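Hi V.,

You were right to ask for the full record rather than a summary. Here it is.
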Amino acid sequence: MKTILNIIWLVLSGVWLFLGYCLAGVILCITIIGIPFGIASFRIAVYALWPFGYTAVERRDAGPASCVGNVLWLVLAGWWLALGHIVTGIALCITIIGIPFGIANFKMVPLSLLPLGREIVPTDAPFASR
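Predicted structure:
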């Protein structure tokens, strides 16, 4: 079932969200300071491409640097990526068939706003990183 949902997701919104995260990652990796943010963007891009069967969990060893990094991320790229998830989620929720995919988009908004200090793990082992 996860595979079918992921294929439908890929067609409806996954490709566009993936490209948005990759664009943000490339722009952030152009500067030396933005490389950690670019890596986070590429990590979320893969999750946005194939989200069903995976979940984001907090890393307990993240530390204060990830908090500062999240504030910078929020200003540099987070708002635009979250806005993409919100617009896509609303568009998908208009149809009855798209409601589960719209809800999945809304669940990605917090991750797109504050990605540092989080890890993407399979849903059958959400506590594996702890």
